[in-house]
Amino acid sequence: MNQIDLEQYEADVVIVGSEGAGSTAALEIARSNLSAIVITKGNGLGRSGATITGEADLAVDSKSLHEKFKFEGCDPDDSKEKFFEDIVLGGKYLNQQDMVEAHVEDAPERLKDLLDWGLKPLFVAKMSGHSYPRGVIVSAPEMIRIYRKKLQETGVKFLSNIMVQEILHRDGQCGGVFGLNMATGRFVVVKAKATLLATGGGMRIYPITTAPEELTGDGTAMAYRAGVELMDMEFPMFLPGCFPWPMAVKGVNTPFKLSSAGMVHGHLLNKHGERFMAKWDPVKMERSTRDILAVGIWTEIIENRGGPHGGVFVSLKHMPDNLVKYILDWLPPKYLKKYGGFDMKKFLPDLSKNAVESVPACHFFNGGIKIDRNCQTNLKGLYAAGEVAAGIHGSNRLSGNAFTDMIVWGHRAAISIAASIENGLTHTDVNANQLDAYIEVALKGFGRSSGENAQELRDRLMQTAWDKVGIVRNRELLQEANDTIKDLGASYRKISLSFQERLYNREWLRYLELRNMIDNMECMVEAAISREESRGAHYRKDFPQTDNKKWALNQIITRKHGQTEIRKEIPKITRIKPPLKVEQYGK
User: Fold this and answer.
1) CATH for the stretch 241-360
2) What digits encode the pLDDT tens for the residues 342-372?
3) Residue 375: how many CA atoms within 13 Å on its side-chain side?
4) Third-level CATH fold of 435-546
5) Residue 89, H or E segment
6) How do residues 472-504 score in pLDDT, each as one tens digit?
7) I want to staple 60 with a disulfide (CB 3.0 to 4.6 A). Which of 107, 135, 289, 370 is the partner?
8) What pLDDT score does 272 carry?
9) Which letter does DSSP use for residue 452 in this model?
10) CATH 1.20.58.100, the chain: domain bounds
11) What pTM value is reported for the model?
């Protein structure tokens, strides 16, 4: 393809992903007097990605919240060391502990940045998996407005409606990114000394999810194809308590606020009225961590003890009627009345009389691109931060650490990038043959008179993910999923696009996304088959115990010569060693 057909840009740094991690990094890059281009798949900042959907908690140790910010409801007996311990225990020892140390150490300062910029927290709560009240309840839309204002002051360049498809690399160094401008139908090349991926997770692989539609695992997939190491891909996390119906609020997680989020404690019941969490965590019951709750809920559903809409029930009937009514008065309106922009009163029954049906939804990717504590990958010049990166959460993320993750690690990535450029990291030439190959692959779906339908393949992939690579797994289901993925990969190469127009062609966009979804699911399935135990967000019914003797290990996935390869590594341990024994899952 002639170079005149390309939109070409150049900067010191290109940041792919404009929301929490990407915006945090962009602000710090601007302070370093480096030029930056921020690329967003949406129509501007705050119009895509998972950050904008959050009305949730940002985790900081309670002692710092008490001493540094004078917040009410905190506990000065907490500490960064105890916060560290909760994260490692919650992640079932697969966390990179040097990264967890940086995470808990930096969290108060990064929260201070947001407060200095004008963010106003609602209150502090003790959330799932935490020993102390650490959840600073914040509004993500308000956070995004603050980011937008701050970034406008810097003059950082934004490119909107760009789907980045591939990483440009040559001789072991990243040189920028290649993508599609959906608004013009033209391809885009952005050359940069350093590239930061802040693209979020791949939750849209699953049909029931809390995530917006554009989160299709683009960052992990393009990194995987470029030979970048991935880690912990077997641990997609499911939020235990979302609407299974009606379609208007499917995946909205308000019922979770009633069951275990630390504010209102509902009882989880099956269709027989039994509090089934006693079988999984008889001490914490509904206040268990979200990985255990999801497994408990899903087991009831697949063993036919769920409700008419495929969920279990969240009940408040153990509380007096006047207290239930009072809950609706004291909780902020955003949680039960206007959550996610919906008037939840239209979907909630009289909670003093009736239960809410609830199902787990895919909520977060614990795994992703393998980075070190400076956010560097194994490809020179390529960095990752936020949900797209692995290492902090291990096999299960604690509540609130997603928001902390994006502000801490977006900032750390920018500091690391600025230091690398100061120390001589510079541009590398674009590989023209590689670029031509990328363009050829992107256009493959055009020109065929007949072939496979992209949406039908996408639907098949999502249903396979839900049925066979979901919350409760076994070898037979995973192997069936593996066979399906291979078949989908072959069928993908035969897709025929119905619409030949390239200008904002949604079918073309979905076609490109499907390739990323297939690559992500291939990695997830391979890692899940390999891990013959149950740990965190990975539950194998045929291997129902947590085996620290053999499996206190991370699985590193790379693509070599067109094949997926897995190697196992001991996590970086700085303080807490796993007990070398086989344990009951969840204990």
Assistant:
1) 3.90.700.10
2) 677 778 888 889 999 999 999 999 999 999 9
3) 33
4) Methane Monooxygenase Hydroxylase; Chain G, domain 1 (1.20.58)
5) helix 80-90
6) 999 999 999 999 999 999 999 999 999 999 998
7) 107
8) 98
9) B
10) 435-546
11) 0.95
